[in-house]
Design brief:
- It is built from 17 helices and 13 strands.
- The protein is α/β, with parallel strands linked by helices.
- Strand 11 and strand 12 form a beta hairpin.
- The protein is globular and about 65 Å long.
Length: 447
């Protein structure tokens, strides 16, 4: 949705604390700089990510010409042109934005050809909210010409709900962040942000209006997108129940058979493993879910490390919508609150580490020792992060886990952690404990 449309919505109003700051969600995104850097080195940049996360708006700011493949009333015409006369679609000043390009995947070869003959970077920007049915050959043939970037919903720092006084880059550099102030220090505030999510339009709304956006996203996913993504008809009710199951199991390394059992036991849905896999693959191609890879360090012990991916939604609001929960429900069920808060923390860490050209993974061994997030830099430096709601008992538990894992790392074969941190929902300030572990509220953090 464009800024003008948001302003019109604000003028209409509806009497329930409707709009707080319609312009605020359109501040500069972390992704903007990443896109500019990639355009300076690649012939074409493909931006992938969940719908509504801001791909088109961000790409429009960098582009000098644009074609919207799915423009109302022109979709069939554009697809026909892409098939018969692709140069008509691609004609325009560089960088040329092809929005929702996956609806006309036949453009790929023409874009590749044009990039090869343009002999300069920054020719095309492609945006897509789903992955084409078979993209393996495209990724292979795009090597050296195309760059892939993944865009996610907004972090708390981007939506101006983190002070940004605590910097991950400073932690990696060994600097102290003690005293960094939290922008949202209490559980009620964070509960609202979990349910609202990081969707740019929702970040410009307040109250029930903002919370409804996540339910609208869920409805669109299960009613149409999950079938449209690959042309396979899928049942709306099954999709809703599977997403509820995924929400219950997020933050775990549950196998497909576990999800199948959860659907049978908690949803009364007998379903085959193949069907579960089909629905999950569709959600993955829509970027609704984004699982996290395992970290396998050099350890002093011979304890086997579990290598399965950890399951997450791309935004916590998808989980709350799937479970039918609002902020008050989370306040009344702190266990569920903690699980969904972890999803938000992982979302923000992923975006922040993208800005630092790093990555995020998860550790779990056969003995049950688990670390919620391991943040990696490309130079080999890494930090260990435990995610907790807050409070003395939970912080102590997180610190104990971090110290136990750090003691098992074989520092002869690899460096020890650059820092260890308990990332919390609550708290007024960041501080460093006597044992060196940093305690930091998520609403104080930035890259």
């Amino acid at each position: 949705m464009k800024i003008q449309q948001i302003e019109e919505c604000a003028l209409r109003g509806n009497g329930i604390n409707n709009i707080i700051h319609p312009m605020k969600a359109y501040k500069k995104r972390i992704f903007d700089e990443l896109l500019q850097e990639e355009l300076s080195g690649a012939g074409a940049v493909l931006i992938e990510g969940a719908k509504w996360c801001g791909k088109t708006t961000t790409a429009e700011q960098a582009a000098k010409s644009v074609i919207y493949v799915d423009e109302t009333g022109k979709l069939d015409e554009n697809i026909s042109l892409a098939r018969l006369k692709p140069d008509k679609i691609l004609l325009g000043e560089y960088p040329r934005l092809i929005d929702e390009w996956q609806l006309a995947p036949m453009l790929w070869d023409s874009i590749r050809y044009n990039v090869d003959h343009a002999d300069k970077p920054g020719c095309y920007i492609l945006t897509g909210s789903s992955v084409p049915a078979d993209d393996s050959e495209m990724r292979h043939s795009g090597a050296g010409r195309f760059s892939w970037l993944k865009m996610r919903p907004m972090t708390l720092w981007e939506s101006q709900e983190s002070s940004g006084e605590a910097s991950l880059s400073e932690l990696f550099a060994g600097k102290d962040i003690t005293g960094a102030k939290s922008a949202c220090p209490d559980l009620e505030q964070i509960a609202f942000l979990l349910c609202r999510g990081g969707w740019p339009f929702a970040c410009g709304l307040s109250g029930r209006v903002a919370l409804r956006r996540a339910f609208a996203y869920l409805d669109a996913t299960v009613k149409s997108d999950i079938s449209r993504v690959d042309g396979i008809s899928r049942d709306e009710s099954r999709a809703r129940r599977l997403m509820r199951s995924y929400a219950r199991l997020q933050g775990t390394q549950s196998a497909i058979t576990v999800i199948k059992a959860d659907l049978a036991g908690n949803e009364g849905l007998p379903i085959s493993v193949d069907t579960v896999s089909s629905y999950i693959n569709a959600l993955r191609r829509l970027f609704v879910i984004e699982d996290m890879p395992a970290w396998c360090p050099n350890l002093r012990s011979k304890m086997p490390v579990r290598t399965g991916d950890t399951r997450y939604f791309v935004d916590p609001s998808i989980a709350t919508a799937a479970l039918g929960l609002g902020p008050e429900d989370l306040m009344n069920d702190l266990k569920t609150y903690g699980l969904i808060f972890e999803t938000m923390a992982i979302r923000d860490l992923r975006v922040y580490m993208d800005a630092l050209f790093g990555s995020v993974s998860h550790y779990l061994d056969a003995g049950g020792l688990e670390c919620d997030a391991v943040v990696h830099m490309r130079n080999g430096r890494y930090g260990l992060v435990e995610i907790k709601l807050g409070g003395k008992e939970l912080i102590e538990r997180g610190a104990a886990t971090l110290k136990k894992l750090a003691s098992r790392i074989d520092t002869v074969k690899m460096a020890g952690p650059a820092f260890m941190m308990v990332l919390t929902a609550t708290g007024d300030f960041a501080y460093r404990r006597e044992d060196g572990i940093v305690v930091c509220p998520v609403s104080a953090l930035k890259p």
